[in-house]
Amino acid sequence: MAKIGTDLNSFILEEERKYPNATGSLSRALVAIESATKVIASHVRMAGLADVLGKAGKTNVQGEEVQKLDELANRLMVEYLSQCGEFFALASEELEEPIFPEEGKNGKYVIAFDPLDGSSNIDVNVSIGTIFSIHRRVNSDVSDFLQEGYKQVAAGYVIYGSSTMFVLSTGNGVNGFTLDPSVGMYLLSHPNIKIPEKGKIYSINESNDKKWIDKGLKDYIESLKEEGYTSRYIGSMVADVHRTLIKGGMFAYPADSKSKNGKLRLLYEAAPMAFLTVQAQGVATTGKEDILNVKPTDIHQRVPVFLGGKYEMEKLKQVLING
Ligand code: AHG
Ligand code: MN
Ligand code: MN
């Protein structure tokens, strides 16, 4: 097992060495994500200062145009991931259609990402993040994005919180790296993350309870309360899932009468978080099937999400089956 303090680059290279036939493609792809997110992190840390520094109106002190942070994060992801040449195609929450970068025409992977998750929290200084999901290129067209989640080669997120953390799985468990701002490196701080089998927290936007479609969901939440669970809901999926991975409990965005398939997107929110959850020995379901088994039909499709520890998810299954 890698030692605490190992930097993410060395960790990635070390992982690659376990596969004698590896070409280094995935390592270069991951390093590109790493670089992009470091730049995004530095902009996130400046959020709120853009207007101060850019008194002239639309340009800041460096003469750059002041952009909305989610657009900026998207541009940075597209730039870094295109340039690395390892991605045949890129899909983003912020782009209607995928991009096929010229530099990636021989790329072996496709990537879907949410450049900035929880963007409604930017203005109030609450944690936000970047989520990504990598699949192999197989058909060399848009259908490469429509592969099931269990086929992901790697998935992860970066949380811009009280510190910046990169949480990654390449299918060998989950590891968390904290950005040391003094050296600009992500250092292994949370090796081998495992969701506690039973936690103490439920995380759901309870204001929607009258609209929930799943019969039994309200009773389920009530019975968690009776068991002594407490509520935490940040409203940034990255932050709510991050807490769930570390402290346990459950996180959900269910279907409701307004959002018939829930709110979260399969490709760049639900599937990567489900991959990490399962790699951390938790469970992730739509309520009907494992999220990782859902065959996507559309790049921006939504699915209901329930994820968490074994205890909470087993209890949920009983309720949804009997409900
Ligand atoms: P995004 O900022 O990428 O659009 O995602 C916001 C999502 C997700 O982060 C969070 O779990 C959810 O919206 C919160 O939705 P509600 O405000 O409806 O609870
Ligand atoms: Mn999002
Ligand atoms: Mn987003």
Describe, in plain words, how this protein is organized in 3D.
Keywords: Carbohydrate metabolism, Cytoplasm, Hydrolase, Magnesium, Metal-binding. Belongs to the FBPase class 1 family. Pathway: Carbohydrate biosynthesis; Calvin cycle. It is an enzyme of class 3 (hydrolase). By secondary structure, the protein is of the alpha+beta class. It folds into 2 domains: 183 residues, Fructose-1,6-Bisphosphatase, subunit A, domain 1 (Fructose-1,6-Bisphosphatase, Chain A, domain 1, 2-Layer Sandwich); 120 residues, D-Maltodextrin-Binding Protein, domain 2, CATH 3.40.190.80. It has 8 helices and 12 strands. The strands form 2 sheets. The chain has a 7-stranded mixed β-sheet with strand order 1-2-3-4-5-6-7, sandwiched between helices. The chain is globular, with a radius of gyration of 19 Å. The termini are far apart. 45% of the residues are buried. The mean pLDDT is 93. Bound molecules: 2,5-anhydro-1,6-di-O-phosphono-D-glucitol (AHG) and manganese (II) ion (MN) (2 copies). 2,5-anhydro-1,6-di-O-phosphono-D-glucitol (AHG) binds next to β2.
